[in-house]
Amino acid sequence: MSARLRNTISKVLPPLFAILLLVAVWQTVCSFGQVPKYMLPSPGDVAAAFEKDWQLMFSHAKTTLTETFIGLFFGILIGFLAAVVMDRFNIVRRMIYPLIVISQTIPTIAIAPLLVIWLGYKMLPKIILIVLVVFFPIAVSLLDGFSSADPDTIRLMQSMGARKMQIFRYVKLPNSLGQFFSSLKISVSYAVVSAVVSEWIGGTEGLGCYMTRVRKSFSSDKMFAVIILISVISLLLIWLTNVLQRVCMPWDKINKNRSKKI
Amino acid sequence: MAALEVKDVTFSYDNVTPVLKNVDLTLNDGELVCLLGVSGGGKTTLFNIISGLNRPQQGTDMLLPYRTVEDNVALPLIIKGMKKKEARIKVGEYFAQFGIEGTQKKYPAELSGGMRQRAALLRTYMFSADVALLDEPFSALDTLTKSEMHRWYLDVMSRIKLSTIFITHDIDEAILLSDRIYLLRGKPGTITDEIVISQPKPRDKEFNLTEEFLQYKRKIIHLISN
After folding, report:
1. Is residue A164 less than 8 Å (CB to CB) from chain B?
2. Residue A176 lies in a domain
3. Which of B53, B74, B192, B222 gets the highest tally of CB atoms within 10 A of its CB?
4. How much is the pLDDT for B54?
């Protein structure tokens, strides 16, 4: 067995064991028959519900994922542009930074109904909500990354005759990537949750709508199944972000290994 | 022909206490000149004044951690507008000469301190092919690596044509590497003496064990303590 494989197993085994234990306890509690199924379905019930309804769930998931990806795309784009402008023009930063912070104190659940009133029951209000949620961590982390670039390195670049654009491209941008990916990991899971929440409020498609329907029919087994599905989707997206980070920052692993040795 | 001339430089940070006074120095083509003086004596200040033209290379290597060694070295060329591919080929020619062949695709974190310093010096060479200003470039290295770097530097200098001004407070280093040494002393700092090291180049690696070397050293210590 290779060292790497052993390493992976030793990392995966403990949490896997904990999860299995939890499921076993859950199954045992339910098998006594004291708790009604509409309150707490057993893991077996949940699995059966998933097996029965998975095609429907996946078609709803497709809608939710579409909203999530479009929302993420525009959220990142706008966050990036805002960070660049704020980094470039200090006056803009002082003007809009406080506004951005204030905008984040407004609870998502409170604006979602307003967005529905303004923009209707289709995809647009959901996408806007995701953009609003994603934009903030992305803009702030990028701005932080840009402005934390080493001033000596910037001076060195200037002495080489680098223009502002070149300093941005060769120093500030790569310097901000670490923070960007940290916030992207948070953003992707927020984005999925926001999509679901906005689907609760109104709409005809998406995992949120599916949730509302099964809740109203007291199908707790399906409710549990869809919750697990949403978790799995979020985890997959976070994993995807990790992969993307490794591709975009090949130096990161080397630098980390080195600092581990020291 | 002079590659660089400094004439009658007087400088003060606050317009009250001068840091430098009437400093004159000349760097001839292909020459290595050393500026020797105590810490806080105005050496780096003088360099920063000169570096209106050229930025000094400092003890810390300042390679960008997120660029491979070759992309670090090629950066000055890329900034000047050269295509990345072309720049890589151009700098690639120098890797062997600078003794860092095979490190092109590595990241700075994978290299030892001495190797990083070599790469940083190559980068300096790439953006100022005429005059290099080195501000205590080997000060961050341990003694053994340092003497290895001295030999390496003399070796590289014998093959490429580069005029260098070099700051140090290490007398041995100054004698070993320089054609001429300027002593920067006093407050405000001024150049008190100029010592010509007439030992021909390339110098033997045991030059620092010879009687001539000791004579130079004695002379400098005598001048400084005077």
Report:
1. no
2. yes
3. B74
4. 46
